[in-house]
Design a protein that fits this description.
It is built from twelve helices and no strands. It is mainly α. The longest helix has 28 residues.
């Protein structure tokens, strides 16, 4: 969401100054800003788990989903995002996508709760080879040989790094790898659904939240987070 705001600012500067070169840097600035926000989010979530001892991943996901829906609605009202027409037919269509979306978020939080941050990043890098494999199986698309080679080299480096992990946690590793696989399934499904339904990223995100918020609350009840949350801290 912050990336969209940054992109709007850069676009406005480009129009105001009549300089097309500014527009050329929009993608690069948005990508860098997105990377910074992703890294900051990982550290923030880790601090919530370790520093504040808030070991409720499903609750954290539910809170993030509620805030995301609120932020999207506000950005639509102020004109940052285009207003969308809500459709029950589209909501039903993105049900499977939302399942993968929620699964990857819950697994992400659970893995981050048990694995140190460097190894979390390394294990999450296995998402890319999973995307390449699923993209080939589900959509028949194959990446160039150079891209595949670079991806497998990075993955091999992650395996080597894992051998020397002094805080090895088998369950955490399993959760992180499962998160990578569910993330890959989500990415490929997004591409497939985006081509079919012609939905933009934020519309998909809003529909995802419509499914994920109630489902994460169900997980809270099933895992006992709901009852133990009342005694926190």
């Amino acid at each position: 969401i912050p990336v969209v705001a940054m992109d709007k600012i850069i676009k406005a500067e480009s129009v105001a100054h009549g300089n097309p070169k500014i527009d050329h840097y929009r993608g690069a600035v948005a990508a860098c800003f997105y990377g910074s926000m992703s890294i900051a989010t990982v550290f923030l979530n880790k601090a919530i788990f370790k520093v504040h001892k808030f070991h409720f991943p499903a609750t954290l996901v539910a809170g993030q989903m509620a805030f995301t829906m609120f932020a999207i609605v506000v950005m639509q009202q102020v004109g940052v995002l285009k207003k969308m027409h809500f459709s029950l037919a589209v909501l039903r269509k993105v049900g499977l996508l939302s399942f993968f979306f929620l699964l990857k978020l819950v697994l992400d939080m659970s893995a981050l709760n048990t694995v140190n941050i460097p190894m979390y990043g390394v294990l999450k890098s296995s998402t890319t080879p999973c995307v390449l494999l699923l993209d080939y199986l589900m959509r028949g698309k194959s990446a160039a040989s150079r891209i595949q080679a670079s991806v497998w080299i990075i993955t091999l480096g992650g395996l080597i790094a894992g051998i020397g992990d002094l805080t090895f946690h088998p369950v955490g590793y399993l959760l992180a790898l499962s998160s990578a696989m569910s993330t890959a399934a989500y990415v490929v499904t997004v591409g497939k659904l985006g081509d079919e339904a012609k939905l933009d990223s934020f519309t998909l995100l809003f529909y995802n939240c419509c499914w994920s918020l109630p489902m994460s609350m169900v997980i809270m009840v099933c895992t006992g987070e709901w009852s133990t949350l009342a005694t926190f801290p």
